[in-house]
Design a protein that fits this description.
This protein is an alpha/beta fold. It contains 8 helices and 11 strands.
Length: 250
């Protein structure tokens, strides 16, 4: 029996954030993310879903469309999880930026990735803009760094984001649209790694079996100790699917 045999039919054809939305509907008050360290914070599945919906609507209001590449430059935190889910809900593709790397490296990644949106706090956003190399176009000469980038500063834009509706929104991306690009211009890669929603769902379904752990019958809680950027696998393991209850033999 495969991992997908224990799940609801068709789940492998869904978009990655829909796995999370299923959990949020089933267990809205269960803790989804707990931040550890100096600034502890806890978000339930319902709270996480509502915050992600508001941010996704804000991204849409700025003109975000399907498969637009969104760099997320946030430390490990509940707001980073909110940002990733919002990107997927709005139809975009997540590009993680690790703030422990030099700003010059991250600025180059922003340019080379083709990101059209950046989600960060204001201090990090300004540092990345200053570090990004200028764009050189034959017709226009040298342009300012990241001239077409739309920046969402979670701290400065908090009131505007909070004013958005928390209701679910229709995602413009399909299962085969781009959803994730890790380190798109790594020094040892000629071509960037690209993963679709279908790829991420299959990875989420396969991770527990690959690690020798059965899919849980209760939702996981993602615990975030202080540190660098979120990894894909910890998000998928924490917000992925549950095992479908087996039929009562009696």
């Amino acid at each position: 029996m495969t991992v997908t045999d224990t799940l609801a039919p068709g789940v492998e054809k869904r978009r990655i954030h829909e796995l999370f939305e299923t959990l949020a509907a089933l267990v809205p008050v269960t803790p989804a993310v707990i931040a550890e360290g100096e600034r502890p914070e806890r978000l339930s599945y319902g709270e996480l879903d509502r915050r992600a919906n508001r941010l996704a609507r804000h991204l849409r209001s700025l003109g975000m469309g399907a498969e637009e590449r969104v760099a997320v430059a946030l430390e490990r935190s509940p707001e980073a999880v909110v940002a990733v889910l919002a990107v997927w809900k709005a139809g975009g593709a997540w590009i993680p930026l690790d703030l422990s790397q030099p700003a010059a490296r991250l600025g180059a990644l922003l340019e080379e990735s083709g990101a059209t949106f950046l989600i960060a706090r204001e201090e990090s956003a300004e540092a990345l803009k200053a570090a990004a190399p200028p764009w050189r176009l034959q017709e226009l000469g040298e342009l300012p760094p990241l001239w077409q980038l739309r920046i969402v500063r979670l701290d400065r834009d908090a009131a505007e984001i909070a004013g958005q509706s928390a209701a679910p929104l229709r995602c413009t991306a399909g299962p085969d649209h781009l959803a994730y690009m890790p380190d798109p211009a790594g020094p040892e890669r000629r071509e960037p790694v690209k993963m679709t929603h279908r790829d991420l769902v299959q990875r989420a379904l396969g991770l527990p079996s690959l690690s020798g752990v059965e899919l849980p019958a209760v939702p996981r809680t993602l615990r975030l100790p202080p540190g660098a950027a979120l990894s894909l696998d910890e998000v998928l393991l924490a917000l992925g699917p549950l095992r479908r209850p087996e039929a009562d033999p009696g």
